[in-house]
Amino acid sequence: MDLWFDAESYTSYFRLVIFSFGFHQVFHAGIETWYDYFFTKYLKYAKSVIRCMNEDLAPSGFMWYAPDWWFMYTAFAVVFLFKLLRPEFSYLLDKADKDKIIKLIGILINKFSSSDITVDN
Predict the structure, then answer these.
(1) Number of C-alpha atoms within 13 angstroms, CB side, residue 101?
(2) Which domain holds residue 28?
(3) Domain count of the fold of the chain
(4) DSSP class of residue 65?
(5) Neighbour tally for 97: CB within 10 Å
(6) In a domain, 97, yes or no
(7) pTM, entire model
(8) 73: nearest Cα among 52, 57, 54, 49
(9) Hey, which of 34, 44, 68, 119 would disulfide with 26, CB 3.0 to 4.6 Å?
């Protein structure tokens, strides 16, 4: 794990927060011209946060000693990806995107339940 990872995880999470707020606002205001812009960014950064956990943090060996924010950032990304699978957002995602989201979250669940990470032995 290096400094690049840390910077990438922070920026991805903070951008996710900003774009999720923006997406929420334009969706509820009905400003359809901005849906695609906010949705694309929102999806990109949510996936990036989860990928950082799956590919960098989980295999690092430091998960037993991880600060809470590692889990909170990841949980925030997972919740918003699950939110996108709801019927009202179905027209924004195609089947391949839905499958990728489910696969990415499935990988995360498998890593979190592995004996390398779980504390309950």
Answers:
(1) 22
(2) 3-112
(3) 1
(4) G
(5) 14
(6) yes
(7) 0.82
(8) 49
(9) 34
Name the residue type at position 104. L
In a domain, 117, yes or no: no
Residue 45 corresponds to which tokens in the numbers above? Answer: 């950064």
Q: Would you say 19 and 45 are in contact if contact means Cβ atoms under 8 Å apart?
A: yes
- SS3 call for 119: coil
Token readout for 21 is 């707020």
Tokens 């590692």 belong to which residue? 70
Q: What is the pLDDT along the chain (121 residues), one digit of tens a residue?
A: 444 456 777 788 889 889 888 888 888 888 888 888 888 888 899 999 999 888 888 887 777 777 788 889 899 999 989 988 999 888 888 999 999 999 999 999 998 888 777 665 5
User: Within 10 Å of residue 64's Cβ, how many Cβ atoms?
Assistant: 9
Structure tokens at 22: 């923006």
